[in-house]
Amino acid sequence: MEMAIDTPSPAPPTPPTPPAAGGRQTRAAESVRLEHQLVRVPLEALRSTVRSNHRLAEKEIAAALSSASAAPAESSAAAVDHLTSLVSRLHGLKRKMEEGARAEELQVQRCRARLDRLATASTGDDAEWEDLRLKRILVDYMLRMSYYDSATKLAETSGIQDLVDIDVFLDAKRVIDSLQNNEVAPALAWCAENKSRLKKSKSKLEFLLRLQEFVEFVKAKNCIQAIAYARKYLAPWGSIHMKELQRVTATLVFRSNTNCTPYKVLFEQDRWDFLVDMFKQDFCKLYGMSLEPLLNIYLQAGLTALKTPFCSEGSCPKEDPLSLEGFRKLAEPLPFSKQHHSKLVCYITKELMDTENPPRVLPNGYVYSEKALQEMAKKNDGKITCPRTGEVCDFSECVRAFIS
């Protein structure tokens, strides 16, 4: 008896990934590498909000339990008043926890929106993706340059509020404004809120803020208060920063009108600018942001390919971005691009001149691509007009040049 054996049909070959889809996947991978802060910032903000809510709940619940155990037993009226106060306090805690829950939900919504945004990198429309990315980069730049109103307006008109970090930068603005007004209290409160993470990153911001507050007491000639402050807030740092502590406490002797340079600099206004810079660095590190604005990073990536020694000379052509002072300043720390061979670009078409499109020299010495001159000759009965000088000649007078 013959048996029929069913052999499974081979699986159809996997269709190759279309070039456009492959490009989108590459774009998504590049976006994650260059803009990791797109997801990292709201995640860090969510973690911070959860920690704050947890600390608040622990503190209030412990206080409520302590208050309940201390309720008076001898007087019923006093007990009622005590319990009424306790209930009122618990209602306040409930309101605070509800506000905290709403803040957490907002951060979760932003994380979800950004993950969805990254998911569209490999499937969405190219033009729409690039347009929104440019707007996000511009908002990031405006926030870092303190153009908060402009950044908010652009985010609202573009509908990208969940894709930018305006609220995070506004919290930082409050601290920066206080430091610029010679106040350290908001900055110290920020350090207290993020104490564990700042300690892990070995930040010196809190220590420098304490030093500055001590110096301000000395500057105001409140020496007794300065000594008391040093004993309470600076002494715990002695095992780590003893040399700096010794130098700062010596200001009690030298005072603010000293001409001794090592101590004179401690009283200068530049110290507050230094604290602002230190806060910005720790703020960016805490949220996983790049120290430089994303706009600068993208621009520098392009300028790296364009920068040559010729760009620093006065004869840099106007078409070159490095002819502008702003771009030259941005490209200043960048290395020169590596050029193995000279490249000739046509003044008319902006296309590269090579063996397929060779250069031709006009009688007046200017060089243009053969393609551009042929098109010009067809439109003008074989005549060529130099776009730089206006001189006219026949196409036959143009001599081919050879690149070695």
Give your account of this protein's structure.
Residues 316-389 form the RING-Gid-type domain. A three-stranded antiparallel β-sheet has the order 4-3-7. The chain has a two-stranded antiparallel sheet with strand order 1-2. A hairpin with a 5-residue loop joins strand 3 and strand 4. The chain is built from 17 helices and seven strands. With 404 residues, it is mostly helical. The chain has helices at 19-34, 37-69, 76-119, 126-144, 148-158, 166-180, 185-193, 195-200, 205-219, 223-234, 242-249, 251-254, 261-264, 270-287, 294-306, 325-331, 370-379, and strands at residues 344-345, 352-353, 359-361, 367-369, 383-385, 392-394, 399-400.
Structure described in brief:
By secondary structure, the protein is mainly α. Helices cover 60% and strands 4% of the residues.
What oligomerization state is this entry in?
Answer: single chain
Mean pLDDT over the full residue set: 84
Task: Tally the helices.
Answer: 17
Please state the overall shape, judged from the principal axes of the Cα atoms: elongated
Order of helices and strands: HHHHHHHHHHHHHHHHEEEEHEEE
Distance between the termini: 82 Å
User: What kind of sheet is the major sheet?
Assistant: 3 strands, antiparallel
Please provide the count of β strands. 7
What portion of residues belong to β-strands?
under 5%
Strand order of the largest sheet: 4-3-7
The computed structural class is mainly alpha
* Fraction of residues in helix: 55-70%
Uncertain segments: 1-19
CA radius of gyration is 33 Å
